[in-house]
Amino acid sequence: MAFFNDGICQLQCLQSRAMGTSNLNTETKNARIDMAEANIPAILLAGGKGTRLQAVLASKPKPLALVGNIPFLELLVMQLRSQGIRRMIMSTGHFADQIEEAFGDGRRWNADIQYSRESQPLGTAGAVKFAERHLEQSSDFLVINGDSFMEMDLREFVCFHHQHRGLASMAVRAVTDAARYGTVHVDGFNRISGFNEKTGNTSPGIINAGVYMFRRPVLESIPQGPSSLEKDVFPRLLMQGIYASEQDGLFIDIGTPEDYTRAQGLCQELYQAAIAAPQLGSRKRSGSVTQPHD
User: Fold this and answer.
1) Most exposed of 77, 110, 192, 249 (fewest Cβ within 10 Å)?
2) This prediction's pTM
């Protein structure tokens, strides 16, 4: 059974911060080895219909939308592999055959890809619950929205999750104008205290970036059938502990034609972010933020 040692994780996080950028290549190698040994699986939520993109993607699923000449979902696979994550479960539904044909068993990326195919739309939480059978040997697992990209150090995220010992951890992103966004309220201990729907308020805010780390007991809080992580599950888990890991890397989703067009202009940056080693330190990219969609 795959368990990740909390004490070792905390020590490695402290060591990585102390090493600095001069040892970036060594740190990258170690990070890959550590993540591979942890054997943490990642669920990629790729089953939505993408109704807002049907005008430009009438005959293919949203995750296969090309950004430059690369399917968007492939950027996520590349990001996971570049950081040592090999086990992936693709949650498919709409045009599932196309996704399964495009990625197969994952050997092209030296990955192990399995599929959890929905017969009906299940929403973000229902899709995670339906993939439970692929997680039998996992005490913790990642979940990533298949239509958004968050540039981040996944090993640091895993360490954050184990240090805080909550049921769930969420990658969040600060934006200067939260008018279009639902926002996340975070206390001084990184614990999420609440969520707000879109209000039209133009003040700064913190938004959900669509990357999560869960402990296995979270699955007991998700009912069978259609449900949403954002609307149904997370509000119920607040008392049990959801923690926010703030990110400042490149973030975009392709949920609308406007955002999909914007992604084309960022295709080189997205590709480099997917294959590059995580940078120690931060890079502010407030102009490269778009809204995640449920």
Assistant:
1) 110
2) 0.84
Q: For 124-137, how does the pLDDT look when each residue is reduced to its tens digit (9 = 90+)?
A: 999 999 999 999 88
The domain spans of the chain are: 6-288
Compute CA 6 distance to the chain's CA centroid, rounded to the nearest angstrom. Answer: 21
Q: Which of 217, 45, 62 shows the shortest CA–CA distance to 126?
A: 45
The C-alpha atoms of residue 29 and residue 18 are separated, in whole angstroms, by 16
Biggest CA-to-CA distance, the chain: 50
- Options 3.40.190.10, 3.30.870.10, 3.90.550.10, 2.40.110.10; CATH for 6-288 is 3.90.550.10
The pLDDT value given to residue 277: 65
The Cα 278–Cα 3 span in angstroms is 23
Catalytic residue, candidates 49, 60, 198, 284: 198
